[in-house]
User: Fold this.
Amino acid sequence: EVCGCASAAEGRRCLRERPFDLALIDASLPDMEGRDLLDLARQDGFRGPALMLVPAASDPEAGLGLHRRA
Assistant:
């Protein structure tokens, strides 16, 4: 099952409501940074793998996502 979300708030709600095998998170969401959403999802109990989409491999966001186990 796929849950497409337009905001971090919507994504967080989806991750709390049902189990997922993988979270695919954009680094720049309209209402929050993707790394912050991942932190919240981990606090909420999401333990699955996460892929963080960043604009370029050299972007500092890539390192921050890895630091958060994305």
Observations:
- The chain is about 40% helix and 10% strand.
- Residues 41 and 47 are 8 Å apart (CA to CA).
